[in-house]
Every structure is written in C-alpha cells, then in structure tokens.
Hints:
GO molecular function, one term: oxidoreductase activity
Mean pLDDT: 96
CATH architecture: 3-Layer(aba) Sandwich
Number of helices: 9
Domain Nitroreductase: 126-171
Strand content: 5-15%
Strand order of the largest sheet: 1-2-4-3
Protein name: Malonic semialdehyde reductase RutE
CATH topology: NADH Oxidase
CATH superfamily: NADH Oxidase
Amino acid sequence: MLDESGLDLLFHKARTPRRWMARPVEPDLLRQLYEVVSLGPTSGNCSPARFVFITGSEGREKLRPALSAGNVNRVMGAPVIAVVAHDPLFFEQLPRLSPNEELRSWFAADVGLAEETSFRNGTLQGGYMILAARALGLDALPVSGFDQSAVEDEFLADTGWRANFLLCLGYGDTENLPPRAPRLAFEEACRLL
C-alpha cells in the first residue's frame, strides 16, 4: 500500500497545471513513461493505446489549428503534447500479446467489438499515463477540446489510429493555482449493493 506521500504525489496534492515552466522533458523520460504505462492491465493484454509525442515547434504549429480557442495557450505552452490514440486493429498483435488465447478471431470478426474494446482499453491506458507521469515527477493536463479529424489527418493518417484525447506533459507552474474544484461525495457517486 502506498504511504501518504505516494497518495499525495498521485492524487491528494497533484494538480492540473494551467501554465508550464520552460523546462524540457527529456526523450529518455518519455521512454520510461511509456514503459511504465505499458505494464498497466488491459483486457486480454490487448494494449490498444498508441501515443504520438509532439515536442518540436513544427508539430505544435500543425496542431494549433485543431485546438479549441480556450485551449491554445495551455496546450502550446506544454513541453510535450501527447496524442493519446488507439489502434482499431490492435487485435493483429494479440497472437504475440496473448499467445495462449484465441482472441484475435473474436475481434477480427466483429468490427463493433474491436472498436469498443480498443477505445475503452486505450482510454484506460491514457489514464495510466496521467498517473505514471505524476509518479515520474511530471505534471499532466488532459485535453478534449480539439478537432479529432484534423488531428488524425495531420498526425495519424498513415497509421489508421484514432485520436482519443491530448495529454500535455511537463513541469507545471503551480503558483497562483485556484483552489481545487469540488468533487462529488461518496454518497453522490457510489452505490453499495
């Protein structure tokens, strides 16, 4: 069980930044981040998430027109912008990822099931990335205000991957953050049966 400092790092004291420090994120840290994320569980070890890390100015400028107006400054200031995507054809990897199962044929025969599974588990892996980033000392800002088709055309066209959300990564400027927004109480959000 994590001690209080671990829970603070991941949840209690972790905040979503609104601004970023000009400190770069090293490529080796992004590799380490993916290695941690890849260990999180997915159904049948399907591992459908795919990530495109945008770090340079050329990629940022290609992304800019796809961002909603309210997200431009927060996203463009991040040292790294990850396109969190999923591969609808993830099942082609299943003979290697789940060799003792006959899972590939289930998904190859049912496009709807494959899409639902890839989206759900890819989203789960995107959540793992937020927690892994925090565990490795990075801050994370998930963003859904963008033109999905434009991002797919610009960054994913040759892959067939589908964009889910953007995840800004870096070292947040945490000065002058407003108080944490309220959360629902257990009784409002949970049922014990």
